[in-house]
Write a structure and sequence with these properties.
By secondary structure, the chain is mainly α. The protein contains 11 helices and no strands.
Length: 222
């Protein structure tokens, strides 16, 4: 794995990943100190994010060079829509959040910036660039979920969220995307590989910013 593209990409974001694990939002999930209003803000923003992420994955599927990978990303796009619907029917009601509240919610600055960057990269760049841009949402969530699953949470609502991203089903999805990323690696020129590294690091930063926005309940200045 030393020469694989995924190994190269991960080695370029270890500082970001360490900052994510140390962030009070993540720590608060496991020790129960995360304020409920911060988590509900995050969940609402996540529902808004998933809509755009589904569109991003569908766009990656449309650029895929092989039917198998096109089908994989198209399936993941549908799964992202299903995840939002699952939030509506299960987690959101526990916090007193109605579907109408989601429809009325405005994307926070970090949400809008992240999703805009994803869509711009996918539509304006190569297939490989698109894959690298969407990859952190898979990979970092999978790694964080596995870590949180090891730690556990005293709050059953937080634990249910942890179980979703820390389970084997999601881990299998992540492995499939990592395998596709490594299949792309040998086909890239030096400049293309540099662009892939850059997009991967930028959207990894957005992952950190998204959790931070939830913790701070980020709003627009005016």
């Amino acid at each position: 794995m030393a020469d694989s593209l995924t190994a190269e990409l991960w080695s370029g974001i270890t500082d970001i990943y360490d900052a994510i694990l140390a962030h009070p939002f993540i720590v608060g999930l496991t020790d129960g100190t995360l304020p409920v209003d911060a988590f509900t803000f995050y969940v609402v923003q996540d529902a808004l994010y998933l809509r755009k992420y589904a569109a991003a994955l569908a766009a990656v599927a449309s650029r895929a060079p092989h039917p198998r990978t096109a089908a994989m990303f198209a399936r993941h796009s549908a799964d992202a829509v299903a995840a939002e619907l699952e939030l509506h029917s299960t987690l959101l009601p526990e916090f007193g959040i109605s579907p109408a509240a989601i429809e009325a919610a405005e994307p926070a600055p970090a949400t809008l910036a992240y999703t805009s960057y994803l869509l711009a990269t996918i539509h304006g760049g190569s297939y490989a660039e698109g894959v690298s841009a969407v990859l952190p949402c898979y990979w970092i969530y999978g790694e964080v979920g596995a870590e949180l699953l090891r730690r556990g949470s005293p709050d059953p609502r937080y634990q249910r969220w942890i179980d979703t991203y820390g389970g084997e089903e999601f881990a299998a999805v992540v492995r499939d995307v990592l395998a596709e990323t490594d299949a792309i690696g040998p086909l890239l020129s030096a400049s293309e590989r540099a662009a892939v590294r850059r997009h991967f690091r930028v959207t990894s930063r957005y992952e950190l910013m998204f959790w931070d926005a939830g913790y701070r309940q980020e709003s627009w200045p005016v």
